[in-house]
TrEMBL record:
The species this protein was found in: Ramlibacter humi
Segments forming domain DUF1468: 11-154
Keyword Transmembrane helix belongs to the record: yes
This protein's record includes keyword Magnesium: no
InterPro entries to which the protein is assigned, alphabetical: DUF1468
UniProtKB keywords: Membrane, Transmembrane, Transmembrane helix
Superkingdom as given in the UniProt entry: Bacteria
Pfam families: TctB
UniProt signal peptide: none
Protein name (database record): Tripartite tricarboxylate transporter TctB family protein
TM helices/strands, residue ranges: 12-32, 44-64, 76-96, 102-121, 130-149
Length: 161
């Protein structure tokens, strides 16, 4: 059988692999049942659904004809680097790295760092628009995680709070 869409084939395999990994990892927790779900129930079901979706996409890539074979292009290193870097920066700013003497800067600074660095992954960067987005995300995250869910983690930098 010939691959008719390389992009769909690759993404289908990725979905299948990640789904299997999630489902397998969930078996380390108590699964429970539908009426009394354990901590492993949701990741198990999500992993199974993701694997099924991946298999469907992979099957479609072998059956549905595309014009040019839908080849996978070159890896976009710049966006990949900025997106991964922004997530790493978020973690470092949120919690700090005590071993290296880097203090926690808190949720608000971490969200601004994440948003500004991730925005550099695109073709154009508009600081005013990114600042508005970061402010909306910071307020929404504060309300969701600190006010509503009452999670305990630093919100402001160590020198403020």
């Amino acid at each position: 059988m010939r691959i008719k869409s390389h992009k769909d084939f690759g993404s289908g395999l990725m979905f299948t692999a990640v789904g299997i990994a999630f489902a397998w990892g969930a078996t380390n927790y108590t699964i429970g049942e539908g009426a009394r779900m354990g901590p492993g129930y949701f990741p198990l079901m999500l992993g199974i659904l993701m694997a099924i979706l991946g298999l469907a996409i992979t099957f479609t890539s072998l059956v549905v004809e595309t014009e040019d074979g839908d080849r996978i292009g070159a890896i976009a290193w710049k966006p990949l680097g900025f997106i991964i870097g922004s997530n790493v920066l978020f973690g470092v700013l949120l919690a700090g790295i005590p071993r290296l003497g880097i203090p926690a800067f808190g949720l608000i600074v971490a969200i601004y760092g994440l948003t500004f660095v991730a925005a550099m992954a695109g073709d154009e960067f508009k600081a005013r628009e990114v600042a508005v987005l970061a402010t909306v995300l910071a307020i929404g995250s504060y309300l969701a995680f600190v006010v509503l869910l009452k999670l305990q983690f630093p919100v402001w930098p160590w020198f403020i709070g």
